Amino acid sequence: MAIVLAMAILKIARMGHPVLKQVAAPIDDPKSAEIGHLIQDMIDTLADAAGAGLAAPQVHVPQRLVMFHVPDARAREEDGEAAEGCPFTVLINPEIEALSEDISEGIEACLSLPGLAGMVPRFHHILYRGLDHLGQTVEREAEGFHARVVQHECDHLDGILYPMRMDDLSTLTFTSEISRAREEEEQEDAENG
Ligand code: NI
User: Fold this and answer.
1) What is the model's pLDDT at position 4?
2) How far is the CA of 188 from the centre of ligand 1 (A)?
3) In three state form, how does the secondary structure of the chain look?
4) pLDDT of 70-120, one tens digit each?
5) Which of 10, 26, 105, 122 has CB 3.0 to 4.6 Å from 59, enough for a Cys bridge?
6) Tens of pLDDT along 15-56?
């Protein structure tokens, strides 16, 4: 029998959908075929959406699974020349521990709130652990943008979306307005310069 490799792009739940508000259930068997399929479909969905990360509740599956990646170029853009990103990572039943009380503010966006971005405080330095797609333990320290992405994705497993973490809602913005304001500024600079 031939093996059919079908690509599946899943529908992403948007803010307001009940699945994004619930506490997701732990996964008993990380190596099951069912979880394997879910991971593959989520990889396809994340690639299609061109996001940094995705959590299972965002594809209507209330289970404790997230995936993310931070290209080195993106990490350097966010945290300076010395920063490193992280490879593509699947984390099942993840746990996070803050390694210091330092908080960093940074801009976040989410595939479940299309078109929006806002300033969110997060722990700067964390330790995270979980199981990967092979059921093996992953344990890493992360700082800056890498730490931010992991905290954002894991929050989805507890029904938390980034606006719930913001302390200044006036920074919640449609990204199209930011680009428009920037274009207008550039135009003014060109006219004045
Ligand atoms: Ni998100």
Assistant:
1) 58
2) 35
3) CCCCCCCCCCCCCCCCCHHHCCCCECCCCCCCHHHHHHHHHHHHHHHHHCCCEEEHHHHCCCECEEEEEECHHHHHHHHCCCCCCEEEEEEEEEEEEECCCCEEEEEECCCCCCCEEEEEEEECEEEEEEECCCCCEEEEEEEHHHHHHHHHHHHHCCCCCHHHHCCCHHHCEEHHHHHHHHHHHHHHHHHHC
4) 999 999 999 999 898 999 999 999 999 999 999 999 999 999 999 999 999
5) 10
6) 999 999 999 999 999 999 999 999 999 999 999 999 999 999
Confidence of residue 14 (pLDDT cuts 50, 70, 90): very high
Number of domains in the chain: 1
| 143 CA distance to ligand 1 middle (Å) | 18
* Positions marked active-site: 153
What is the span of the domain harbouring residue 43? Answer: 18-191
Is residue 7 assigned to a domain?
A: no
111 C-alpha to ligand 1 centroid (Å): 6
**CATH number of the domain enclosing 179:** 3.90.45.10
- Tens digit of pLDDT for each residue in 156-171? 999 999 999 999 999 9
Is 10 part of any domain?
no
> Does residue 12 lie within any of the structural domains?
no
* Distance in Å, CA 4 to ligand 1 centroid: 31
